[in-house]
Amino acid sequence: MAPKTRRYDTARTKAAVLAQYGHVADAVRGLTGEQIAAASGVGEWTVGDLAGHIAWAVGSLAEAAALPPAEKAEVSVRTWPFATGPLADWTVDVQPGEGRPEAPEDLDALYARTGERFTELLGVLPGDRLLALWIGGMTVADFVVTRAVELVVHTDDLNRALGLEIPLDRQALAACVRVLADALAEKAPGGAVEVRIPPFAVVQCVEGPRHTRGTPPNVVETDPLTWIRLATGRAGWAAELAGARVSASGDRADLSGLLPVMS
Q: CATH 1.20.120.450 occupies which residues in the chain?
């Protein structure tokens, strides 16, 4: 049985994305040159590379909006996690010819102009406007949901890399958890396993007998950040299970072969 399509409140999602971008921008303003040059823990990126990528992920709305609209929607929130693979190692220059953000003032300027333009576009672009993205046509409304995922995932990367405590907007965190949970259900459709990420998501997945009432025979439960790290390959199933950050009961509750769902 195909998973149901989840709906996202566009106004709330826009507010959440702007709030999370603001949290990251505030943190970036306080980084030192030494911190910017530090390893990010994401491949071979420095923290400066990661911070530049976050700004690019948000600023790409302006790039897409400047192009003629796409003819049709080819990518949805539900399929977007599977379309991002080719971009996993993509580092982007601050501006053509400027190079990567290697100093605090580079990041300050980058985040200021990106945030200003992003805020402006969110106020004028209709949600059903089709963007011609590098991965295919996508509505503005769906694209904004994916920015919540990018921002939450990479905020967590920055926090772990530098020992920071950049806040996570609750609505942005919820959207991120739900997108990645739905991607799992899309990748392994079925009703044999129930995956719970309280308080934000419950999905059923994996082919096999489907339960209809009572406690399911196969249950996986974890917290939002652990789920995000598992779903994006930042944590391993065996280690999180051994550390009791994941509980799994039932013969079919091993998700190691299905993770990550997005890289």
A: 10-173
Q: What is the mean pLDDT of the chain?
A: 91
d(CA 204, CA 198): 14
Tell me how far apart the alpha carbons of residues 83 and 177 are, in angstroms, rounded to a whole number: 18
Within the chain, where are the H helices? 10-29, 33-37, 47-65, 80-83, 104-124, 140-162, 170-187, 224-231, 237-242
**CA atoms lying within 13 Å on the CB side of residue 27:** 29
* Span(s) in the chain for CATH 3.30.1050.40: 175-258
Which CATH number applies to 175-258?
Answer: 3.30.1050.40
- What number of CA atoms fall less than 13 Å from residue 189's CA on the CB side? 7
Q: What is the pLDDT of residue 217?
A: 86
Asked whether the predicted pLDDT for residue 90 surpasses 80, the reply is: no
Fold (CATH) for 10-173: Four Helix Bundle (Hemerythrin (Met), subunit A) (1.20.120)
pLDDT of residue 4: 74
Q: How confident is the model at residue 103 (pLDDT cuts 50, 70, 90)?
A: low
**Residue 209 has what pLDDT?**
72
The CA-atom distances, in angstroms, between 216 and each of 192, 205, 209 are 8, 12, 10
pTM of the entire predicted model: 0.92
Residue 91 CA neighbour count, 13 Å, CB half = 15
